[in-house]
Amino acid sequence: MPMSLKDKYAIVGIGYTDQGRVPGRSALSFYVEACANAIKEHQLRFQQCRDCQHIRCPPSIICPLCYSHDTEWIVASGKGKIYTFVVYHQAFHQAFENDLPYVTAIVELAEGPHLLSNIVGCNPEEIECAMPVEVIWEDISEEFTIPKFKIVAEPKGRS
Ligand SMILES: [Zn+2]
Fold first, then answer.
1. Among candidate residues 75, 107, 129, the one where a domain is terminated
2. Is the pLDDT of residue 26 over 70?
3. Domain boundary among 51, 75, 99
4. How many of the other CB atoms lie within 10 Å of CB of 2?
Protein backbone atom coordinates (compact mmCIF):
# COMPACT_ATOMS: atom_id res chain seq x y z
CA MET A 1 0.00 0.00 0.00
CA PRO A 2 1.43 3.43 -0.89
CA MET A 3 2.32 5.64 2.06
CA SER A 4 -0.18 8.40 2.79
CA LEU A 5 0.86 12.04 2.67
CA LYS A 6 0.18 12.23 6.42
CA ASP A 7 2.62 9.37 7.09
CA LYS A 8 5.26 10.98 4.87
CA TYR A 9 4.93 14.24 6.77
CA ALA A 10 5.07 12.38 10.07
CA ILE A 11 8.32 10.65 9.16
CA VAL A 12 10.07 13.88 8.30
CA GLY A 13 8.47 15.54 11.31
CA ILE A 14 6.63 18.39 9.68
CA GLY A 15 3.43 19.48 11.10
CA TYR A 16 0.92 16.60 11.11
CA THR A 17 -0.55 15.72 14.48
CA ASP A 18 -3.75 14.20 15.73
CA GLN A 19 -5.19 17.71 15.46
CA GLY A 20 -4.27 18.05 11.78
CA ARG A 21 -1.53 20.04 10.15
CA VAL A 22 -0.01 22.81 12.26
CA PRO A 23 2.08 25.34 10.33
CA GLY A 24 5.50 26.03 11.70
CA ARG A 25 5.56 23.14 14.13
CA SER A 26 6.82 19.64 13.70
CA ALA A 27 4.81 16.67 14.87
CA LEU A 28 7.84 15.69 16.91
CA SER A 29 7.67 18.99 18.83
CA PHE A 30 4.28 17.91 20.19
CA TYR A 31 5.78 14.72 21.59
CA VAL A 32 8.71 16.58 23.16
CA GLU A 33 6.24 19.08 24.62
CA ALA A 34 4.19 16.21 26.07
CA CYS A 35 7.29 14.99 27.94
CA ALA A 36 8.10 18.53 29.13
CA ASN A 37 4.52 19.06 30.37
CA ALA A 38 4.67 15.75 32.25
CA ILE A 39 7.83 16.92 34.02
CA LYS A 40 5.99 20.05 35.15
CA GLU A 41 3.43 17.69 36.69
CA HIS A 42 6.25 15.70 38.35
CA GLN A 43 5.86 12.71 36.09
CA LEU A 44 8.33 10.95 33.81
CA ARG A 45 6.23 9.97 30.80
CA PHE A 46 7.54 7.89 27.92
CA GLN A 47 6.20 6.39 24.75
CA GLN A 48 5.78 2.62 24.67
CA CYS A 49 5.41 0.74 21.39
CA ARG A 50 2.18 -1.26 21.36
CA ASP A 51 3.70 -3.77 18.93
CA CYS A 52 7.07 -4.67 20.52
CA GLN A 53 6.59 -3.03 23.98
CA HIS A 54 9.85 -1.04 23.69
CA ILE A 55 9.83 2.06 25.93
CA ARG A 56 11.73 4.88 24.29
CA CYS A 57 13.39 8.18 25.12
CA PRO A 58 13.63 10.67 23.49
CA PRO A 59 10.14 10.62 22.02
CA SER A 60 9.80 9.78 18.35
CA ILE A 61 7.14 9.38 15.74
CA ILE A 62 7.94 5.72 15.09
CA CYS A 63 9.42 2.94 17.22
CA PRO A 64 13.20 2.78 16.61
CA LEU A 65 13.15 -1.01 16.99
CA CYS A 66 10.20 -2.18 14.88
CA TYR A 67 9.17 1.06 13.08
CA SER A 68 5.60 0.81 14.35
CA HIS A 69 3.49 3.97 14.66
CA ASP A 70 1.27 2.34 17.29
CA THR A 71 2.29 4.02 20.53
CA GLU A 72 0.90 4.69 23.98
CA TRP A 73 2.18 6.82 26.86
CA ILE A 74 3.26 5.33 30.17
CA VAL A 75 4.28 6.96 33.45
CA ALA A 76 7.61 5.67 34.74
CA SER A 77 8.10 4.73 38.38
CA GLY A 78 10.95 7.21 38.84
CA LYS A 79 13.15 4.39 40.15
CA GLY A 80 16.35 3.27 38.55
CA LYS A 81 20.07 2.85 39.04
CA ILE A 82 23.22 4.77 38.23
CA TYR A 83 24.47 3.64 34.83
CA THR A 84 27.54 5.88 34.87
CA PHE A 85 28.53 9.17 36.48
CA VAL A 86 31.16 11.88 36.85
CA VAL A 87 31.95 14.19 39.78
CA TYR A 88 32.55 17.81 38.80
CA HIS A 89 35.10 19.66 40.93
CA GLN A 90 35.26 22.64 38.60
CA ALA A 91 32.34 24.86 37.59
CA PHE A 92 32.33 25.43 33.84
CA HIS A 93 29.57 28.01 34.39
CA GLN A 94 29.30 30.33 37.39
CA ALA A 95 25.73 29.15 38.00
CA PHE A 96 27.15 25.85 39.25
CA GLU A 97 29.86 27.26 41.57
CA ASN A 98 27.78 26.82 44.71
CA ASP A 99 27.00 23.20 43.82
CA LEU A 100 30.62 22.00 43.73
CA PRO A 101 31.41 19.18 43.91
CA TYR A 102 28.35 17.82 42.10
CA VAL A 103 27.45 14.55 40.43
CA THR A 104 26.22 14.31 36.85
CA ALA A 105 24.98 10.85 35.99
CA ILE A 106 23.22 8.76 33.43
CA VAL A 107 20.39 7.02 35.26
CA GLU A 108 18.99 3.79 33.87
CA LEU A 109 15.31 3.81 34.74
CA ALA A 110 13.58 0.60 35.76
CA GLU A 111 11.52 0.89 32.57
CA GLY A 112 14.65 1.04 30.41
CA PRO A 113 15.20 4.63 29.22
CA HIS A 114 18.40 6.42 30.26
CA LEU A 115 18.27 10.00 31.55
CA LEU A 116 21.10 12.50 32.00
CA SER A 117 20.64 14.18 35.37
CA ASN A 118 22.23 14.95 38.72
CA ILE A 119 22.50 12.80 41.84
CA VAL A 120 21.85 15.10 44.81
CA GLY A 121 21.83 14.92 48.59
CA CYS A 122 24.79 12.59 48.73
CA ASN A 123 28.53 12.51 49.33
CA PRO A 124 29.98 12.42 45.80
CA GLU A 125 32.89 10.32 47.07
CA GLU A 126 30.49 7.50 47.97
CA ILE A 127 28.76 7.24 44.59
CA GLU A 128 29.12 3.97 42.68
CA CYS A 129 27.67 2.61 39.48
CA ALA A 130 24.54 0.46 39.90
CA MET A 131 23.46 2.27 43.08
CA PRO A 132 19.64 2.42 43.26
CA VAL A 133 18.16 5.89 42.85
CA GLU A 134 14.76 7.53 42.65
CA VAL A 135 13.58 10.75 41.12
CA ILE A 136 13.07 13.97 43.07
CA TRP A 137 11.77 17.21 41.56
CA GLU A 138 13.57 20.52 41.68
CA ASP A 139 11.07 23.28 40.92
CA ILE A 140 13.12 26.15 39.51
CA SER A 141 10.00 28.23 38.79
CA GLU A 142 6.30 27.68 38.12
CA GLU A 143 7.19 26.93 34.53
CA PHE A 144 10.38 24.96 34.95
CA THR A 145 11.13 21.77 36.87
CA ILE A 146 14.18 19.54 36.69
CA PRO A 147 14.02 15.83 37.50
CA LYS A 148 17.02 14.91 39.63
CA PHE A 149 17.82 11.73 41.54
CA LYS A 150 18.73 10.70 45.08
CA ILE A 151 20.32 7.52 46.35
CA VAL A 152 17.89 4.98 47.79
CA ALA A 153 19.17 2.97 50.72
CA GLU A 154 19.21 -0.73 49.87
CA PRO A 155 17.32 -3.02 52.26
CA LYS A 156 19.55 -4.42 54.99
CA GLY A 157 20.83 -7.95 54.51
CA ARG A 158 21.71 -7.46 50.86
CA SER A 159 25.27 -7.69 49.77
ZN1 LIG B 1 8.28 -1.36 18.45
1. 75
2. no
3. 75
4. 6
Distance of CA 7 to the CA centre of its chain: 26
Taking the centre of ligand 1 as the mean of its atom positions, its distance from the CA of residue 51, in whole angstroms, is: 5
pLDDT digits (tens, 9 = 90+) for 31-61: 777 777 888 889 999 999 999 999 998 888 8
Q: What is the pLDDT of residues 111-131, one digit of tens each?
A: 999 999 999 999 999 999 999
Residue 67 maps to a domain: yes
113 is a domain residue: yes
- Cα 64 to averaged position of ligand 1 atoms, centre (Å): 7
State CA 28 to chain mean position distance: 15
Distance CA 31, CA 59 (A): 6
How many angstroms does the Cα of residue 154 sit away from the middle of ligand 1? 33
Q: How many whole angstroms from 59 Cα to the centroid of ligand 1?
A: 13
